[in-house]
Amino acid sequence: MDFSNIWGLMPFIAGLLVTGVLSGIAAGLLGIGGGAIIVPALALALGWLGFDGDVVQHVAVGTSLAIIIPTGIVSARSHHKRGAVDVEILKLWAPVVVVTTFVGGLLAGFFTGDVLRIVFGVMALLIAANILLPFQERLMGHLRNSPLTHRISAAFVGFISALMGVGGGSLSVPTIHAFGATMHKAVGTGAAIGVFIALAGTLGFIISGWSVEGRPPLSLGYINIVALVLVGVTAAFCAPIGAAVAHRLQQRTLKIAFAVFLTFVGLNMIWKAITG
Fold it and tell me: How many CB atoms lie within 10 A of CB 95?
């Protein structure tokens, strides 16, 4: 579809703005980059416009990572002002997630759209289960003072986040919490880690999608500039709202909200992959 037909694109534009509002609030509230909202919403919108299913999922994932850059920065700054970013953990994680997320972004082009959907869905369900039944805390809690364990965890989070198109908060937040941080500090630190994931993943998706046919107009690799601007600006504006709400809620409330949200999104992604 031609993006020059502005009136025909009004529903698409409105949908992107709503996505920006919801993902921005989620970024601040849960310490995630908002990708769990952006990826399915953008894939649905681009599919509605008639673009190929495989390309749609890759563009949704890549653009989501690019959108997370401004959202994550604003969210991380909001949490840092409240003393909720653990700088020592950030120093351990940041270099590793930059490398593994970049590699994941480069390799994503070799997977079909349905593979990316299944990865997204299965991981979302596992994360939700871990939040409600914290087996990760029981398995990894005694390793909280091991730098190597932190780096291995960061490598896994970075690579999987690239394939999911998320800022890694849905993976890093429960992991950091399992290592002994409070939920509020885990959320804040996860938001900061998400910025590094988004930067490296975006570069990987630009390179891997550079010469792919069938991408939407105004795309840089797998990054669609229209969605990047509309969702990114709106989400960055709304992220502080979520951060403010997060610090007024009980930790248990945050956990349950996070788990319910991820379960819904995960089941939806798997269903789309199965039904085509």
Answer: 12
